[in-house]
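We now fix the convention by which a protein and its fold are recorded. The integers have meaning only within a learned vocabulary of local backbone shapes. A complete example follows; check for yourself that the lines match position by position.
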Amino acid sequence: MSACGDGAPTAPSTEWVSGVWMAHATLTAVSGGACVGAKLQSSLGSRDIFAALLQQTGTSLTATISSQGNQTSCSYSGSSSGTSVNLSLTSCDAGRVANVRCADGSVFDVELVAERLAAQAVSAGRGTSTSTWNVLPPGGTQPIASMTLSAEFLWNAIGIPHDDFHVFDGSVRPGYVDGNIVIPEEVNPFCEKCGWF
């Protein structure tokens, strides 16, 4: 006869997060980046919207995240534990933003080279991202400066299976209903001017 409390403890269950998540992000901090970083100080509080396709196997995650405003599209890997999600950038199909103009009129490209995201994910949640960008001459490959950006975001699962994800272009509107798939209505789902740059 076993005593009360005997046996192995039960691990907390991990939330199932596969699917498409829509996020509203706000730029909260900028450091480095020479004149590009100085320019972005005036963009603190600016919004962007990104769509994240998450695919989960056990506690392992892969993701594709596409930004509406910054127009980046990158792959991530990470893990899920309980209701927490952690992702790190692995590669980008589109990670470069061209022709960012500084206050003095000089023009540079910026390229996303690293990013970490941490968020809660129970149909909706809050998260943070920290990204590293290289500042380069237009079309160049040798960075002249590095810049770190921090952002906060609120995201929610929008009810689209991960195997029915379309490239995020704003064509799927909140409130759209197709069979059993419902994308809930959001307040101010799109921003007139999105992105940090």
Observations:
- The chain has one domain: 19-156.
- Residues 19-156 form one domain.
- Residues 163-187 have pLDDT under 50 and may be disordered.
